[in-house]
Amino acid sequence: MDFRHIQGRHTGEHLGQELFEVLEYYDISAKLFCITSDSAGNCGKMCEVLTKILRDEKGIKWNHRERYIRCMNHVINLAVQEFLKSIKALAPEDEDNDVEDGEQAMDDNVTLPEGFALAMWKIRELTKVLPVSYIHSYASIFLFLTY
After folding, report:
1. Between the CA atoms of 59, 64, 66 and 72, what dihedral angle is there, to the nearest 10 degrees?
2. DSSP code at position 93
3. DSSP label at 101?
4. Whole-angstrom Cα distance, residue 39 to residue 72?
5. What is the DSSP string of 108-142?
6. CA nearest 69: which of 30, 42, 38, 32?
7. Which has the higher per-residue pLDDT, 114 or 140?
8. Smaller CB count within 10 Å for the chain: N or C?
9. What are the tens digits of pLDDT across the range 12-30?
10. How buried is residue 10: exposed, middle or buried, by Cβ count under 10 Å (0-12/13-18/19+)?
């Protein structure tokens, strides 16, 4: 609904106030049903702060414990990333990859693993396409409204 450059730290308190201002600008504070976002701690705090602001400034009962939904896709992605790292199927994010776009990632003389190891190798190669740190640098917050 709105894109804002937020000055300063992205604390839950700060994000809660910014979100309230957006809701007020569009006159939809009373229609807010739930919020879905990644599972970052500041998003949970933002919803907690928003609960207080809505109650104190608008008299609206909006319970963050019932209405804040963590994005299941994000949670699953984080769990899979940690699992792959634990079995050494995924390189650490800070590992340098000196392979140019047009070059092969391995020598022609290297034998590919088989079975489960091959599947893990394929997953590792796929995750090199877009670094996890790139994906995690964008946080999404979705608002669901009632009519």
Report:
1. 150
2. T
3. T
4. 9
5. TTPPPP-HHHHHHHHHHHHHTSS-HHHHHT---EE
6. 38
7. 114
8. C
9. 999 999 999 999 999 999 9
10. middle
- Amino acid of residue 131: P
How is residue 44 written in tokens?
A: 């949970």
Residues 6 or more apart whose Cβ sits within 8 Å of residue 3: none
Say what the pTM is.
0.57
Report the distance separating Cα 78 and Cα 135, nearest Å: 11
The answer for residues whose C-beta is within 8 angstroms of residue 93's C-beta and 6 or more apart is 131, 132, 133
Q: Show the tokens assigned to 54.
A: 């809505």
Q: How long a stretch of residues is the chain?
A: 147
The structure tokens listed for 121 are 């190798």
Six token digits for residue 134: 């790139």
